[in-house]
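pasting for ref
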Amino acid sequence: MISCVIWDWNGTLLDDVDVSIEAMNRVLERYGLERLNKERYRKIFRFPVRDYYELAGFDFGKVDFEKPALEFIEEYYSLAGAAGLSHGALEAVTRLSESSIRQVILSASERKSLIGQVRRLGIEGRFTDILGINNHFAASKAELALKWISDNNLDKNNTVFIGDTTHDFETASAAGCPCVLVSSGHQNADALRAVSTNIARDITEAAQMVLKLAEGEAVKI
């Protein structure tokens, strides 16, 4: 019986892929590097984000990682107001709430900025907690997830992660929880299939899988 869903934010509940690409392209142009199109972006994006930056063209023998990383954050938040909820996100969250499933947001975003985004979109009250990291460099979420699950005495078998990257799968695995990955976010389906077969086309399908489990149906995730 599923009692808790831990949602990823960027690229899962928040439709910010285009915003992220434009922000990175502004930084790439500043360094004389080739712009990314959506197909290439979704192929090379990964955690830790330092690896993604290198695949995008940065040479950290010539420039410190923190410099373009901070420039990206500045550009991202200058554009972030244009990012809305992913298609079907509000309906999915509402359906899970109506089924008395506890919901939490867990993000590699800086927590204060994360709360601001969630509040702007008017869905803050639908979540038991909103968990973010304490800096802008998008480090691992696994430690944060483990601590929250332990502090709240959750049954790991009844807690499902929903995200859009291989790092979400790694986080769920480190926490000992099942995970559903959606292929509509920052990483393409090929990248996700490298770590999992539990892939939904979008949030709507992911929520349906969770609801079937909550109702006792034999859905393997």
